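task queued by scheduler; priority normal; single chain, no ligands, no partner chains; default sampling; output format set to C-alpha cells
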Amino acid sequence: MKKKDGKRTHMIPLARVQPVTVALMILLLVLAASVACAGAAELSEAGGRESAPPMGIGAPVSMDGGPAFSKEMTRASAPQSSDQIAIDVDRLIIQNVSMRLAVNSISDTIDTISSLATELGGFVVSSYVRGNGSDEYGFVSFRIPVQQTDIVRSRLRDTAVRIEEESTQSTDVTEEYVDIQGRLSNLKRTEEQYLLLFDKAKSVEDMLRIQRELSTVRSQIEQTTGRMQYLERTSAMALISVDLRLATSSDPLVPAGWSFQETVKDALRSVSLFGQWLAGAIIWVIIYSPIWGALLIATYFASRWIRRRTRNSS
C-alpha cells in the first residue's frame, strides 16, 4: 500500500494478475474459433442451396423437398444447348408460290388445277368461284411435294391465256427446327428422371406432386412435337395460290332483253314525267302568287324610295 496525494492506493501483486490475464486470453481465443466455425458452416450450407437445382421442370426433388439425385444424375439433368447436341438435319425451307392468271374459263381451270394437284401427289386446300359475267373471278390454293414445284408452275403457265403476276417466297426454318429438336431431347430426359422419382415415391403426396410436374413436362413434349411435325410437313409440301380472272369479257355486244318498243315506251314515260313535273311547278307558282306578288311590289317601292332619297341628298 502506498500513499499518493493524501490517498491510499492498493497494489495488486503481479503474481495474481498474470493467471487472470492468461485465462481471459484463452477464453477470447475459444470464442473467436467458435464464431469462425459457425460462419464457415453457414457459407457451406448456402453454397449447397445455390448449387442445387430449383424445384420445377428439369429439376427433380426428393420426397422431403431436398435434392433427389447424385452428382452424376444432377449433371445429366442439366439442359444442353442445341450446339451441344449433335443433330443431323437437312435444310428445311417453306416455299409459297403466288400466281395471277387470265384464263378463258374459271370453272374449267379450277377443275384442271385440282386434277393436276392430285396427279402430282398433292391436295387442294381451298377454292371458290364468285361473280357473274365479266365480273366472275376465282381462287384456288393447293399443296404439292416441293420437288414438283417447277413442273406445276410450267403447267399453270401453259393453262393461262396470260400471266398477270407471279411471285415466290421461301422461308428457312432449319434453325428453329434444330432448336426445337434440342428442347424436345431435354424434355424427354426430364420425363425419364421424373418417372424414376415416381417409382421411388413413398407417400401419396409425393406421388401427386411428381405427377403434376410430369404432366407439365408431357404437355410441353406434345406441343414441341406438334411444332416439329408442322415444320416438317410445310417444308415438304409447297403451297401454291392462284388467282383467276377472265381473259375476255363474256358479255354480249347488245345486252340481252333489249327491245325497240320498250325503249320508245321508256322515252314516252320520261316525257310524261317531265310534263307532270312542269305542270306541278306552274301550279305551285300560281298558288303562291299572292306572296310572290306582295314581295315584288314591296321591293319595287322600296327601291324607288331609296333612289329618290339619293337624288335629294345630292
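post-processing summary
- The chain has eight helices and seven strands.
- Residues 80 and 292 are 98 Å apart (CA to CA).
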